[in-house]
Predict the structure.
Amino acid sequence: MRYLIFCSLLFTQFLFSQQPYPKDYFQSPLDVPIVLSGSFGELRSNHFHSGLDIKTQQREGLDVFTTASGYVSRIKIQHYGYGKAVYITHPNGYTTVYAHLQSFGPKIQDYVKKEQYKKQSYEIELFPKPGELPVSKGELIAFSGNTGGSGGPHLHYEIRNAKAEPINPLLFGYDVKDTKPPRILGVYAYAIGNGSIINNTNNRIELRLTKKDDNPFVADRILAEGTIGLGVETYDQFDMAYNKNGAYKVCTTVEGKLNFEYNFASFSFAESRYINTLIDYPAYANKRKRIQKCYIEPYNKLSIYDKKDNNGLISIDTGNTYNVSLEVSDLAGNVSVVHIPVEGKKQELLHPKTLFKSDHYLISQRDNIFKVGNATLFFPENAFYYNFFIDLQQNGDTIKVHKDDVPMRKNYTLSIELDSIDNKDVDKYFIAHVSDHGYLSYQHTYRKSNVLSTRTRALGNFIVAKDSVGPKIRPSNFKDGQWLSNFNSLKLIITDDLSGINSYRAKINDQWILMEYEYKENSLTYDLSDIDFKDATHLLEVVVTDNVGNSTTYKAVFHQK
């Protein structure tokens, strides 16, 4: 109980210390109740989630309002990532971000389309001057959507400080109902360093937990010697939603004294990829378990830690007993606790960790070059976080570059020399990554003579593939020769069976038109109100090119008054 009182006091002090965040400055960006499908700091692939994902009632087109007065400082439209996004800078130094939008409000939409037609590009990034697009608090600036890398209709909303660092929006007073404590799926113990043993092994072990009536879990007693660390698999849930969100804070105590703590109040985009040092990366790669380590590896550069005595590691002396606790909490004050009794005991290592060794040892603090069959690999300094034996093999036409259970920081270069090629189609060859299910994915490939190269962070199997078939194009909502007087848009479906879509270009009556590409639907859409063509008969021409240069042209005539 001493531990619970101590942590409650710390939590109250933390909330008091955060009062500088204005609690009534920003309004809601939507006129529906805020129900979250994603939380700030949530663990994603290779990054932390930098905002709130607000549900839009499973539909698109909801009004999106600026949450405070300011000016539009940035607009970015891309096929992937945030899709359509607008950034508003406010007089108090904060910037709000609204992403995955269906479209912008009339004032911003006119500004954007003018620039898109000027640059003849759907993807665009604009930085309006402070006086160009001023907005008032509560002004309609966009409509919610599902563009970019969104997995379903919602509004992604961020608040960033003057250093462009994302801040947890829930610290600004947003009312999101949350009465559920975080759920703990598992707690793990790690033997750290030579000579450390837990329950006769130096492998990661999962602790067996027993639930008590007054909330805390109690783990079975563990026997240990040397240095140990803990890890937790956990998620949080808000009311009115079933989504598994990230927990706000994790901390550990030893004998009632705070030993280690981190929280998701803020982070820097520059450090986001270090998420792979927070989690047990092999557990994620092999079993899709995101176990958050409650200790800090030497190569971990994250700034989310508030307390880190001995980097969260716990030294166990033979003959002593230790009362260790692990706590997971959310910003609403809901808490889940696990008590872990530890006994220091000398023991035999009966189940040692299996260590992989190969002929190739990679030293992360320097450049590394390896030759494997007809492949050459260049790993720049700090491409990986730590040193290890790397598995490099050539099996027939397949180049194996380790397996994807080791996290990477930087791209490396894979070059493959072609033994024999068809000079006529030499530019149709590319390097492809091969999934466990045999699916080929294009890796951006460049060629010098008979050597293909790619820069990538992917690990696993690679082959050289050839793509000599162009993309496919077909109309979706119209037919060649059709009258479209009552239509709002033209829609085409574009696909490519191997290297993937690289670019597209469309014209009507030989004049460039803006077509929006939605890769999740394989669709190209043109708004028929964009250009007022004078004649009634129009020639549509669309050219789609894949990643190795194969092009397909589609032509159709339509009529419109």
